[in-house]
Design a protein that fits this description.
mainly alpha
């Protein structure tokens, strides 16, 4: 029996899935709460000489690695290499967790960089907006779709992963049809947003 057929015939772990569902909803709720809180204008002060300005390129790198892992995972499942598919997905999950921790830490402690803000103050002037031109609207469009897809895809990704590890393959495949393209879009547009915003980092 092939490894692929062996996986398909495994008994679903229903009780484990029930427990994981509760954990997933709790984690998603905490993440959404943190994302809302970090939009506050009040930032957590860091000790003198300590800053997290180095994190934006790290965010871009982590998202790029997630993109690679997601593409690899798709290729491996097409070739029915479930072991490598699992490794790629688990690596993408781990990288995404590291990204989330870095992202939250950065935005809780550092003022937001705004596209077109050349003098690094808290507001965009009409002159700065005019200078940025249509590129600013393109950036905001990509950023908005990036944020929406990240929010919507988070529980879908978690449930798709949960259905996979509990051997509920029909539910896994149905969830992946929605979760995978959104996750890939978020991973790809993250570095795009960084490189578009990079000239305005101070």
């Amino acid at each position: 029996m092939s490894q692929f057929q062996d996986y398909l015939q495994r008994e679903p772990k229903i009780e484990l899935a029930k427990k994981l569902k509760k954990v997933i909803w709790m984690l998603c709720s905490v993440v959404f709460l943190l994302v809302v809180m970090m939009r506050s204008p009040y930032k957590i002060p860091l000790p003198d000489g300590v800053h997290l300005d180095f994190l934006p390129p790290v965010h871009a790198l982590l998202n790029s690695l997630v993109t690679v892992m997601l593409i690899l995972a798709l290729v491996m499942v097409k070739y029915k290499r479930i072991d490598l598919h699992k490794r790629a997905i688990n690596t993408a999950m781990l990288l995404s967790v590291v990204f989330l921790l870095c992202y939250v830490a950065y935005h809780f402690t550092t003022e937001e960089t705004r596209f077109g803000n050349l003098d690094a103050d808290t507001a965009l002037s009409e002159e700065e907006i005019a200078t940025a031109g249509n590129a600013r609207y393109l950036y905001l469009s990509i950023l908005l779709t990036h944020i929406v897809c990240a929010a919507v895809s988070l529980p879908l990704i978690c449930f798709a992963w949960m259905y996979g590890i509990t051997y509920q393959f029909e539910k896994h495949k149905k969830m992946v049809r929605w979760a995978y393209p959104m996750w890939l879009y978020v991973a790809v547009t993250g570095p795009v947003c960084y490189f578009m915003l990079q000239p305005y980092y101070q």
